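User: For a reading group we're discussing how well predicted structures match intuition. Take Putative membrane protein, TIGR04086 family. Before you show the prediction, I'll give you the sequence so everyone sees exactly what went in.
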Amino acid sequence: MKQPTTSGTHPALRSPLLVGMSIILGVVLSGSIITAMLLRFTSVEESSLPYFAYGINAIALLSGGWISGRQAGHRGWLYGGLTGILYVLLVLIIGFLAFDTNMRVQPVLFTLCASGIAAIGGIFGVNAGSR
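Assistant: Thanks. Here is the predicted 3D structure of Putative membrane protein, TIGR04086 family, as structure tokens, for the group to look at:
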């Protein structure tokens, strides 16, 4: 017998990984727009752009992992880490298809850092969601 959903949405739409990825992409998009506005309308130099990119990605991964872990309610490190890995795969696919980049060691390091940051966010999300 089919169980009714409480919020009226399809269960796949409430997937912790999908919700976490949505948050990551939203934060990256918002951060990119803010960075572009800062570069255009302030005296911020383009040489500081890598720091903005690293900061935006770290905040996005932490936020996405946190939401993913909170949504799951358990195993936040796993859901957060998987969300980070999905984000890295998306970035690598876009980089490969759009910019024809070669595979190097840097994506492996990026994968480890991204999944670690998102896993930490997932751990915090599970702990925040239990209260």
